[in-house]
Amino acid sequence: MNIKISIVLLLALQVSCEYAPKIIHDYKKPDVVEITNQKHVNESFDTIWYRLVKNLTKSFFSINHIDKQSRVISLNFSITNPNDLFICGHSTIYYKDIKSKCETYIFNDADDSRYRKLFDSNDLFRPLTTRKMSLNGVINYYLEPVDDGTNIIVNVRYVIKKDESFYYNSGSGYGYERNMTDFCTMNTGSFCIMDYMTCRPTGKFEHELLTYCEENPSNYKYELYKPDKPNKLDREDMDICKEKLDISSQSRR
Predict the structure, then answer these.
(1) Under DSSP, is residue 12 helix (H, G, I), strand (E, B) or coil?
(2) pTM of the predicted model, to two decimals?
(3) What are 215-224's contacts with CB under 8 Å, separation 24+?
(4) CA-to-CA distance for 29 and 108, rounded, in angstroms?
(5) Which of 1, 27, 55, 251 has its CA 20 to 30 A from that of 114?
(6) From CA 31, how far away is CA 41, in angstroms rounded?
């Protein structure tokens, strides 16, 4: 009798494992980007200083501190759609639900996106997650007078918020998580230890901030770095998903 019960339990366990949801995450770290955050201008310190202050007062930045004697200007900023100012790599998520239906999610990690939750205590129901990215931080200018003009240095402290909201199909309700990371112009930042993302600046912001020392910064044109946009889901992706998750070609009866 005990042998029969053990066999039944073993078969039940085998079936439950066969049809349990599976998830695989392929992540590519962001490419290294060359960033220019300083320049030399063949104009006097006073000329550059007053022009910079004038242009910044017309911008959306909040001026936190100005001190001509120490040659420092400090600004605060907040941006709700910042995905061209930093990059966080690229993700492909393969997910199989309990009915062996395969889903593939492909996105740039700096963008707002939707995907199946990667880390969860309930492995039977991976909730569909909606991610929103936002950015705030501090900008510091330093102006240095030299014999033949002025050296301008700008550094940015990036503070990224990653808000994730999700709904459990099992009926256990909604969930919400917020993670944050911060880094400066020449550095990278990572989220909490259970997260995978590494972020770095694209260099666009620093390049744009240096143009505020010009007469017409809004007319300045530069080459904007943008990561490749992921391809749309196609049949090949579905085949890869099934191969990754080892799904049988025969449907479940």
Answers:
(1) helix
(2) 0.77
(3) 215/51, 217/55, 224/84
(4) 10
(5) 251
(6) 30
21-55 pLDDT, tens digit per residue, is 678 888 899 988 889 999 999 999 999 999 999 99
CB neighbour list of residue 94: distance below 8 Å, 6 or more residues apart: 22, 23, 24, 25, 26, 102, 103, 104, 240, 241, 244, 245
Q: How far apart are CA 170 and CA 157, in angstroms?
A: 41
- The terminus-to-terminus CA distance of the chain in angstroms comes to 30
Give the pair of three-digit tokens for residue 133.
Answer: 């990215």
Rg of the Cα trace of the chain?
25
Cα–Cα dist 111/223, whole Å: 20
Q: Is the torsion defined by CA of 38, 110, 73, 220 positive or negative?
A: positive
In angstroms, rounded to a whole number, what is the distance separating the alpha carbons of residues 102 and 95? 6
Tokens, residue 12: 């039940």
189 backbone φψ class: left, alpha, beta (φ>0; ψ -120 to 50): beta
Residue 146 has pLDDT above 90, yes or no: yes
What per-residue confidence (pLDDT) applies to 168?
Answer: 65
Residue type, 77: F
Backbone angles phi, psi at 122, to 5 degrees: -100, 95
